[in-house]
Amino acid sequence: MQILGVAAASSALALSAAGSALACNISEFSAAPKCDGSKGVITVTDKDASGTPATITVFLENNGADAKQVGEQDVTGSREGVTVTFNEDWSANAEYRIHVTAGKDKDHPIVDKDIEGNLKTPSEGCSKDESTPPATPSPSESASTPAESPSPTPSASDSTPPADTSSNAPSPAAGDSNLAETGASSNTGLIAGIAGALVVVGGGAVFFGMRRRGANSGR
Questions:
Q1: Which tens digit of pLDDT belongs to each residue from 124-168?
Q2: Which residue among 4, 61, 142, 192 sits deepest, i.e. has the most Cβ atoms within 10 Å of its Cβ?
Q3: For residue 77, what are the contacts with CB-CB under 8 A and spacing of at least 6?
Q4: 83-92, 102-111, 201-210 — which is least confidently predicted?
Q5: Rounded distance, CA 56 to CA 86, Å?
């Protein structure tokens, strides 16, 4: 009987240890930020060999508080691991809290904890568009509109008309120039006419005077 009692106790301890080894544990869950093309995703892997049903809930954190619930999915793990994916286009340097609830009895779960340490995303996002665009270079002085160059100042030779060159026409006579200056050229014909008339009258007077004298001497 004593031998049977010892064997039964040993079997119970072995079954208890085996049961503890197969029990779901928070250490069997892990999470990671990944990229699906240019979009971000969060994956959670359950390596619970006991196959205990679990519910994974992901929260976005902000200053130590839940900013929003990203999503919730059920998973049944395995020794090889079962992975669920959350379509969360995460930003660089973001922080997420991953909560696990495991067990068939929702009121008395085997696991009701967060994965130790919040999940932090890398400093670079999945999309290249998230990188800071380079500053737009300011237009160089050479590309700016050139200032208008001052118009050239006309030289004295350009502004001063050339002196009159001597023409081929003959220069006016000295007498003509004097008459033109005095204005007498306009009365020259009248004066010449009067002078001619006086010469005729004087000549006639001399002629008649000589005839008269000859007549008187003949008497």
A1: 999 865 444 445 555 554 444 555 555 555 554 455 555 555 455
A2: 61
A3: 24, 28, 29, 46, 47, 48, 49, 50, 51, 52, 54
A4: 201-210
A5: 10
DSSP E strands: which ranges in the chain?
29-36, 39-46, 53-62, 65-76, 82-86, 95-102, 111-114, 119-120
Q: What is the pTM of this model?
A: 0.51
Written as six digits, the tokens of 76 are 């049944």
Amino acid at 205: A
Buried b (16+ CB within 10 A) or exposed e, 95-127: bbbbbbbbbeeeeebbbeeebeeebebeeebbe
| Cβ within 8 Å of residue 93, ≥6 positions away | 120, 121, 122, 123
